[in-house]
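Limitations
The structure tokens in this dataset are predictions for the assembled complex, not deposited experimental models. Users should treat interface geometry with appropriate caution, especially where small molecules or nucleic acid strands are included. An illustrative entry is reproduced here so readers can see what is and is not provided.
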Amino acid sequence: MNEMRPIRAKSGTNQEGTSAHNRRVMIDALRLNGQLSRADLARATKLTKQTVSNIIEDLEQDGLVVSLAAVRNGRGQPSTPYRLVPDGAFAIGLQIDRHVTRAIAVDLVGTVLVRAQANLPPGGPAHGAKVILDLIEHTRTELAGIADQAEKRLVGLGVAMPGPFGLAIDHDDPWMMAAWQNFPLLETLAAGTGLEVALQNDASACATAERMVGAAHGIDHAVCLYIGYGIGAGLILNGELYAGGNGNAGEIGMVLLPPSARRPAQASLEHRASLASLYQHLGADPAEPGLHERLNVLVNKDDPAVASWIDDAAEELRWGVQLIETIFDPQTVILCSSGPEILTRKLFEAIPPLLPSIADRPDRSAPRLQLGMTDPWSVALGAAAEPISRAFDPRFSAILKTRANAIG
Amino acid sequence: MNEMRPIRAKSGTNQEGTSAHNRRVMIDALRLNGQLSRADLARATKLTKQTVSNIIEDLEQDGLVVSLAAVRNGRGQPSTPYRLVPDGAFAIGLQIDRHVTRAIAVDLVGTVLVRAQANLPPGGPAHGAKVILDLIEHTRTELAGIADQAEKRLVGLGVAMPGPFGLAIDHDDPWMMAAWQNFPLLETLAAGTGLEVALQNDASACATAERMVGAAHGIDHAVCLYIGYGIGAGLILNGELYAGGNGNAGEIGMVLLPPSARRPAQASLEHRASLASLYQHLGADPAEPGLHERLNVLVNKDDPAVASWIDDAAEELRWGVQLIETIFDPQTVILCSSGPEILTRKLFEAIPPLLPSIADRPDRSAPRLQLGMTDPWSVALGAAAEPISRAFDPRFSAILKTRANAIG
DNA sequence: GAAATAAGTCAATGCAATTGACTTAATGAA
DNA sequence: TTCATTAAGTCAATTGCATTGACTTATTTC
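Predicted assembly:
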């Protein structure tokens, strides 16, 4: 056939794909249920006992699962439960923010083993790249000191930074977030660390974290409403993170208010409910050292300026929640923030009553809105969770062949 | 283990799943590329020539593909292209609207073979159910007259009706759309037809149609902005229709306008840009016989009332497009409507200039907004396309085991 | 004509899940 | 105590689909 035009098609699969999927399903089941016997796994995955036995044996050999003491459950031979081995795999997560960068090392079950932080000098990647590589190196060394075989079991490096990605940019700030986007960051990090590198925006990272160890654990349809310097939504759809056609899905902060709102043209949600808007409201410089702590104090003592911002922001977010519910029909919405915990909590408390929406249904199980992780490190945690998820979670792409065979 | 608490886990897979997936990949590739040789398929799917040969032989035996005349392409043995056989499978689609119901029969490639329509009497399912079953029966009979083996190759019945689904409802209209929702429609239809039945809302159906034979053909991230009696968005995410946690994702018409808009509380997009709003604007009764044609005439002669509605609606939709782009980051947005073609076209022309959004990127290929199918039957077509898609498109769920084995 | 190139087939192999019988270890009833 | 019952888990053989490597066929190029 005409070799000129590219042929569009999905990949096929083979027994390797089958096997890979089944291994992932086992790991996923153990992650969700804590501990399960081989018989449990066989029932839950609809595979045969024998198949499960083989796979579990394999996973045990690979150091990913271990057996626990046998338990009697009535008649019949006692079962031997298995659970995940935390030290079975590790990943490093990197958060790049405006003036700070954080690195985290996690294990297979999402426990944080190392935290490290560094200030990013103004001037963008020209100066920042080395700081980041050093930070990763430092994290990696610390991890190697704590966990045996950590290097061998390192599955990748996840990176989170503010989006959106890939746009033509006409303005920039002293920290040059825009410059970071044009910088070949992934390539630099891959070359500098020798690890597989993947990028997501900070709201997605938050959602990834919530899915591994937080409120979205085991939930297939959840949206994280993330309030950072900007605002974004991290989307868990069909049990997987959804990034959109260009990795920018969920940039809810850039939604313009409707034309009839009689607002200054092109006002966006971000303008009234992000930390940036709070800093502006307070007349604070986002780069001010110790701002986070000062903010913490202000919120604690019920500073009126902060309180009035909370009222305004909560009103906007109330609408944002309704928007998310209406558009995504998730099982739950999770509020996350990189701000001080108390601020997030107060914001969370100020949002109700929620507006009527399709989420207001009689058969709900999860709450419409819940508080997510309030740790400012949760974005970095999500960054670290991504490689773990990519390596071990069941997903369509994992069954597909990635390369053709020698013979054809 | 404790049998009491249910174990959450995904299904495993086996060789059946592999084989099923690979068959679907072949069909998908032929659908997307028109015609391909076995060698083409092997390269595109990354499977071996032999595997492809076996599968194609199977598919040919099953009457799903046929070979065409061999073509010479330079050196080497000429290749034998294959294409899908339209008569390889059929499906029936049913659209239930307020006062009318439509049925369509399509073949494997989405060609419409039968159209049938009936008025729905007021009074909801009590009276309507029989009308619908008769309409389906009629469509089926006609199809059997046209296509050989149609009954044997009928893969299912797709149903489309206005959402949202599953809410507690406190008001209703004479056509009792709400009553339809509480009625065990799927069960009734499954029992009455003996077919597999699936339900989607009308915006989703439109997206399904656009994906099979329209502007979303071969595009993995697309959103249909559908203007019917209400407004909705049909979501194609990662190449599959996304329905949300409860089948209500994309109910964009129910998005409330932000609080700061100084509007009557709880105004929604639907109030100004749906056909319902147009009927109200014109003081027309939606149930008026021949309304569609009258509207057609009005639009054609540039009726000022219609024109002013178009202006208003276009302004709202301009915002709606920006909202969709910002939230889903699709490759393209497709405007669909169940109204008269000219109305849809005028609306489409009135929407630009589009608002700035993340979709406004330097590396675009598809237009940000395009006109979809303007046929009022496209919802019914989408309903019919769903069973075809479910039976033949590659998707994650298709590889998973659905039942455990005898032995275990 | 002969070499090169590509499509497609043949027969054997490989591999992961399946099958059915079997073993082990508990409970509960006689 | 004994023995049937129930359930977990193993063993060895089988199945079924993709793969492998050699081979055939048909065309172009030199």
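Some entries come with short summary sentences. For this one: Chain A touches chain B through 105 residues (CB under 8 Å).
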